[in-house]
Design goal:
Blueprint lengths: L1 E4 L8 E2 L3 E2 L5 E3 L7 H9 L4 E5 L14 H25 L7 H6 L9 H17 L16 H19 L4 H13 L9 H5 L7 H7 L2 H12 L4 H9 L33 H16 L11 H10 L7 H8 L10 E6 L9 E6 L8 E6 L5 E8 L7 E4 L2
Antiparallel strand pairs: 1-5, 2-5, 3-4, 6-7, 6-10, 7-8, 8-9
Helix pairs in contact: 2-4, 2-5, 4-5, 4-6, 5-6, 5-11, 6-10, 9-10, 10-11, 11-12
Length: 394
């Protein structure tokens, strides 16, 4: 199968991977032949891309960085917690407005009711990544507008755990990091539905100022839930702080040192977990069009934007580690060979079959010449091609 933007779908194409709703019920099953009505619905629901079956690419089977079981467990726990907190906010706060004082004064009402379920889900995330030996960031579950808040949190947790492993964090630390990631945006629930779901690039004035309170709200919710979750509370409070002090809500500074098992930092500095989550969150937002730019970026451009902020906004050491695990060409995507040590391949088109040992050197299935004429599919291994340059087409 191959990866294709929803805007490029055509009637008669066959869906390659099943799509699920925000409550993880089946929305459209794999094998469904697409007609104009289905294609329109996918666009209306906010899907950006999906997978379709195609002759010659049957052996391409993209895998989410998490198993379906683990992802659904985590997303369902998040859905339950968000819904219950939403209800508490709507019942108590007039017009959806809330303050940190109100949150602090009513700990029995404003908390995260099923944090134990989320902790269990995070343990599954950590086990999944370790047991399946996930080393590279490839693809995520397809995201629609209605699923974004849940998929985003789980994606950030998976990314954070992958980064944490780069620095040798213990299993306990990875679970703390993962739970912090799952909880990092819970404070947005206190902002009301509009601000909770609007992309950051659309916010300004009073809306932006209120949005920047969500780390504070989230930290209070965690304290109300379980005061022993100190690392998680500080991480959520700090996840929008910048290394140069230009972040919020406290304007803390970082030291750009790599995280380690000791997690040592200055008393008034940014928590090490927050330095990891800030990068994981930004990357997921950028590739899904919910970050500082109004359109989804391909992985290379998203990584490039993050690296441009290394040492200023993001921890430099974490940026470098992240750059070693981000696949630049997602499995199933179409690419064009720009340069290769293999004679005569420049200009040919291919589909990414699977990831190689490094992010920029995938296995490819060649399928068309530079003029777009189909050729007999052939699998190529570019693992040792130091001159390789590829262009992501879609």
């Amino acid at each position: 199968m191959r990866r294709i933007p929803v805007e490029n779908l055509e009637p008669g194409m066959v869906l390659g991977r099943s799509l699920f709703s925000a409550t993880n019920t089946l929305a459209l099953a794999a094998g469904q032949k697409l007609d104009p009505r289905y294609i329109k619905l996918l666009g209306d629901y906010g899907y950006q891309w999906t997978y379709v079956e195609e002759d010659g690419f049957e052996e391409i089977t993209p895998q989410d960085i998490l198993s379906d079981t683990t992802r659904r467990l985590a997303e369902n726990a998040l859905h339950e917690g968000v819904d219950k907190l939403k209800h508490a906010v709507q019942m108590k706060a007039e017009a959806g407005q809330i303050t940190s004082d109100l949150l602090s004064s009513e700990p029995d009402l404003f908390n995260i009711p099923n944090v134990d379920d989320m902790s269990h889900a995070v343990s599954s995330v950590v086990r999944d990544i370790i047991d399946r030996n996930i080393g590279l960031v490839d693809i995520f579950a397809e995201v629609a507008s209605s699923t974004y808040i849940y998929r985003h949190a789980v994606n950030v947790a998976a990314l954070a755990v992958l980064i944490g492993r780069q620095f040798g964090l213990t299993s306990r630390q990875l679970r703390e990091l993962g739970l912090s990631a799952i909880l990092h945006d819970f404070g947005k629930v206190c902002l009301g539905d509009d601000l909770m779901t609007r992309p950051k690039h659309e916010l300004e004035g009073d809306d932006l100022e209120r949005f920047q309170e969500h780390p504070t709200y989230g930290s209070i919710l965690i304290h109300n839930t379980d005061p022993s979750l100190v690392a998680e509370r500080l991480t959520v409070l700090h996840h929008h702080e910048w290394q140069n002090g230009g972040g919020y809500p406290q304007g803390l500074k970082g030291d750009n040192l790599p995280p380690s098992r000791s997690l040592e930092r200055a008393d008034d500095g940014i928590h090490r977990y927050a330095e990891i989550i800030s990068i994981a969150e930004s990357y997921d937002n950028l590739v899904h069009g919910n970050g500082e730019v109004p359109r989804p970026l391909d992985p290379a451009d998203a990584l490039g934007m993050i690296m441009s902020f290394a040492g200023k906004r993001f921890n430099q050491a974490v940026c470098h580690a992240f750059s070693q695990i981000v696949c630049l060409y997602p499995t199933g995507s179409m690419i064009q060979v720009q340069q290769s040590s293999a004679f005569g391949l420049e200009g040919y088109y291919a589909i990414v079959k699977e990831q190689g040992t490094t992010p920029a050197h995938p296995f490819l299935i060649l399928y068309a010449d530079p003029d777009g004429n189909r050729v007999r599919p052939k699998t190529l291994d570019f693992s040792n091609d130091s001159t390789l340059k590829l262009k992501l087409m879609v």
